[in-house]
Design brief:
Shape: globular
Mean pLDDT: 80
Distance between the termini: 53 Å
Radius of gyration: 24 Å
Largest sheet: 2 strands, antiparallel
């Protein structure tokens, strides 16, 4: 489960990311609460607009950010993006502490955070493949998710309490300080132990990432699943904050719900780390589990029962996202990995501008429970789409060993040369693939009865 932590570079990266992520979740809690209670009067629609502005740039800039992640030193690129995010956090913190901040200004800064994250996210995701070898990539991705969700467990709970004690502005200042941990981690890494980068040959155009995904039906289905749930189901900031108000609680109640979500998320990430490799069927199963858990949570009559169901929502969500991320990382051509991951991050983060304002409006007009049900329905629909694809793609067939069992074929983590899409490997293909034997043994193996003097 923790094998990637045996590497010095990954261990340093993990610790730096954990500290930075804790600060990030404290800031996220503060930002949501500022918009909902300080800059508006419990207006979930304004909160949805804030989320849309923050997560929109990854979708708009997807081609540029993916190209940058593939063609520049990712470690140095991350130093730049992390520094920019830290400076933005300090500025917002000062404006809040001096009581100058307004809703339009917060929307502006949300957009600037989104631009910085648009360049940071694909570089950070692809950098994992620079730190560990391909066989450990899925494990490293899962442990990254564990770090992220451990921070989600700690950050919102601490942030919620500190908002009550010292105010929201200090949360941004604290987050700015935690970026120093990530900068230190990137600085002390042993660069000679990083995995060698594969130089792109003719796969240098921005559109190559789109073309590559277009030739991979499995990636298209995965992206559709992630988009639907990301747009309508993963608006946890809206759900948790409005449900906290629904139950008559303040910022500490909101922070506690975020931490309960993180308990399930951390469990999902650790379970993903135990799996040998990422499988797309796990993504499909988890999408259905997310939908079911969300629908049940919307019916809970009291706070603690809703909080208990949130744990299952978090488990299903991170099981889906971690497996999807690992699947993309391990089945994508290394020359195009940055661009494909940029597309993946754009689908996750860019889906928010589509769904968050809608979900926020539903929560304001009809209540948070109906908004949660919209997200749960998106999860069920995603699962159905994935299941239909599994059946129609020919990947699902009857087992030859067990009479009533079904077997699902998975894409193998193979290397793809240039822009050629990966083929599906099977025993039948392997039997028809010519294998060159050492020296002159090939002709003898093919023609065992031919005389020594026969022409080849």
């Amino acid at each position: 489960m923790f094998r990637s932590l045996g590497l010095f570079n990954y261990r340093v990266w993990f610790i730096g990311a954990l500290i930075s992520n804790i600060g990030g979740w404290m800031q996220a809690t503060a930002q949501d609460w500022v918009v909902l209670t300080e800059l508006t009067h419990n207006d979930a629609t304004a909160m949805g607009v804030t989320m849309a502005l923050q997560f929109g740039p990854p979708l708009v800039l997807v081609s540029i950010t993916g190209w940058v992640a593939d063609h520049f030193d990712r470690r140095k690129l991350l130093m730049c993006t992390q520094s920019a995010l830290g400076l933005l956090a300090i500025t917002v913190g000062i404006l809040l502490l001096t009581h100058v901040m307004t809703l339009p200004m917060m929307w502006t800064f949300a957009g600037l955070f989104g631009v910085a994250n648009a360049f940071d996210s694909p570089a950070r995701q692809a950098f994992v493949s620079d730190v560990v070898s391909r066989e450990n990539a899925a494990n490293a991705v899962a442990l990254n998710s564990a770090s992220f969700n451990t921070a989600r467990l700690i950050g919102p709970a601490v942030g919620g309490v500190m908002i009550v004690l010292v105010g929201t502005g200090w949360m941004f200042i604290v987050n700015a300080a935690t970026f120093v941990a990530m900068l230190i981690a990137l600085s002390i890494m042993r660069t000679d132990e990083l995995q060698p980068r594969v130089k792109a040959t003719d796969a240098t155009r921005l559109a190559d990432g789109f073309r590559y995904v277009a030739r991979r039906n499995d990636l298209i289905v995965l992206f559709v699943i992630v988009f639907l749930i990301g747009a309508f189901g993963m608006n946890f900031a809206i759900f948790a904050s409005t449900m906290a108000l629904e139950f008559g609680l303040k910022a500490d109640g909101y922070g506690a719900l975020s931490s309960l979500l993180a308990i399930g998320s951390l469990a999902g990430a650790l379970m993903a780390a135990r799996r040998e490799r990422a499988r797309i069927r796990v993504v499909i199963y988890a999408a259905g589990g997310f939908g079911l858990a969300s629908l049940v949570s919307s019916l809970m009559p009291v706070y603690w029962m809703y909080g208990a169901m949130v744990v299952f929502v978090g488990y299903a969500t991170v099981s889906m996202l971690t497996t999807a991320n690992g699947y993309v990382q391990t089945t994508t051509d290394s020359q195009l990995r940055g661009r494909v991951l940029a597309l993946y991050m754009a689908v996750i983060m860019g889906s928010t501008p589509v769904g968050a304002p809608i979900v926020g409006w539903v929560a304001t007009a009809f209540g948070p429970r109906l908004a949660i049900q919209v997200g749960g329905t998106a999860g069920i629909v995603s699962c159905i789409i994935g299941a239909v694809w599994l059946v129609t793609s020919g990947r699902m067939h009857r087992s030859t060993e067990r009479r009533f069992a079904l077997v699902i074929d998975e894409t193998r983590p193979i290397r793809v040369v240039e822009r050629i899409a990966p083929e599906e490997f099977s025993d039948e293909i392997a039997q028809t693939t010519p294998i060159k034997l050492p020296g002159g043994d090939l002709d003898a193996a093919l023609h065992p009865h031919r005389g020594d003097g026969a022409r080849p």
